Amino acid sequence: MLKLRELKLLRASVGNSPRALSTRPAANLSDEYTEKPEYPPIQDLSFKARKKRAAQTWHEQVKNVTTVEGKLIKVNMPRYYGFRTIMLGDERVPYNCLPLSQHYTRTLFENVQKLPDFYDAAGESVDSFAKSLQGSIEDAVGFATLCFRQRKSELPDDTPPAELDRLLGSEIVTQINRLLLMALRDDCAHLSETEVDLDPRHEAFWFVGGVDPPESVKRMRDGVEWQKEFVNDPVDRAVQYIGRPYLAVRHRTPLRPIRPMQEEGRETLEKVPLYKYDARTVGFATTHRHGTTIPGFWPGSPHEFGLLSYQCRDYLLKNPDVGPDTNDLLHAHGIQSSFGWLLGQACYQGFSTYNDITYPLSTQTVITNGQYWSFYVYQLNTTTVHSDCVYNNPKVNYCWGLSQTKLFEEVDESGKCIGFNEDVLKNLIHFYANVPEERVGVNMKPYLGKAEQKVADIEDDKRRAFLERVFKHLMANRPRHRLVPETYTWEKIYKIDNNTRPLEAKRRFFELGVNPFKRRLDDHYGYYIPRDLRPLGRRSKIRHEKNYYP
Amino acid sequence: MSTRWYPIYQRGNPQLRVFLPNFWLKLIRPAHDQPPNIVQFHCSMEMTRHDVKNYLEKIYNVPVVNVRTRIALGKTRREPLKGFVLKEDDMKLAYVTLPKEEKFEFPDIFEKQDLAKQESDNKALEDTKQGFKKYLERNKFRPGLPGWFSI
To answer: Where can this protein be found (chain B) (predicted)?
Structure first.
């Protein structure tokens, strides 16, 4: 494998390099000389500067890809078997993960008593809506709870409590959302143009800098004389958010920003915590996978901007030791889910974890199990958190969050809602009444092509089909066709750790110095073309189809 | 819980035997940097997460939020003379999360003793070096003479 690849590289370099002895004369002698000598800029040739330049070139390459899918594939290009990724999401929200969530999303969090002043304008009308709707919402909650009880009786007795919690939340949220959309439609015209996703996939992938290097990296750097000074330099980590909200509401136009997007002062920037430890120390899992970015729809849907999402909180029941710090977990989840969804939306506008957004996006998040509700308003000002952006990026994201409150005390046998809390309903109606607005004079997709903005716009049939297939394959995250080469335990013991078989031929990948995880996504042949189907005839030597990787 | 067998009662034997549980926890210095509210232990292989939690809470009154355990594979090495492969025992590690306000710093038990000992060691080494240098200087022009020859 290694040899083949080297051979390929060699061939490529022979084919593309200019001929060393070519003596082509300049087209015009006057082009060759200028009044003042023009020198290329003097570049810093230190290791760090070269790495930085290489990274900038890479970011520029991602920026220059014209399609949304192309960009998402491009980010995955360096790894055939995916990146080692930290998994965030609603599956597991570990204790005390708020600082980590803030660092990884570059978020300034504010725990507020009421929604930001931005919502005050709609105060009176919302009060009147809440008064008129309270009765029907109580009925809906009662009805949904009765439905849940009916379904629960049909479920096996050992159904985990977290699953029941999610089921109840799902029933209540679906009813409330349906009711509010119907009831407010006349007064809030934008609600009649929304699209509702039930059980959508909310996924986002990004890179985070400023994390302490693992021991192995430190040891490696320490072993190289000139790298000794960089031993403790922070490293980047790939992060994947995977959420499965109950439902999400989308619109054609984005919500208005809560506050203007601006560069913050040092004092504000220092308020964002820096979590330097490995994410596993706090309880997050890591896995090898491709980065997937899906905000609940595929590129091309006209409803590209989220209004609000309902997240579940069943992880609290899976992790019962939390005690009084429940609100911290909810805040962390609120930050993660809002950032995850907004980053997905930003990526579908042509931005990425490397190319920062040029205008703010905002969203509203509700975390609930039907009875307990907490509300979050999030404004995305920046998507770049990688490498030294953690220290240098002058922009931060903002999150305002309310602590959990009960919507009702209980629902009795007859389905009557007892102890209904009108304030929760008001907050919720505020979210629905927040009118999205078209951004006038803003180029929403500056980094996408003019004719080609998504793969479906591509004219070339082969290229379109190829990119579509690769994109869906990556986003499905099924295992690669060729599985990761495995090191058997006996090999680890008798070949790698202890050299007990020195005379055997070295044929396995670890004996040839190949790291399978460093393999690039395009490091494979295209599909085989049978002789009869080869475009240049049976005798043609072009045996494999072309790749169209971005 | 002990893994020892309780002997079958024979007439005349003492009737009550109490075996201590083979549960133990050993505080270890973490190899990787960890947040200050996380403490790492080496524990007996039979202990579960609940056991670790109860052990710390009930015996030492340490507030515990949660416990994660894993079994670290023991390293293998060659037997120096015969050359076969030996394996060290696996060990169970427990990562105990304390409430976030708590801070734990691994104690530096031997630091002071070490310093004093190191100083005296260094002094002895330096003295020996000086002595040897003197000896070489003295015998510079009479190579091959044994050390006991001069007075």
So the answer is: Mitochondrion
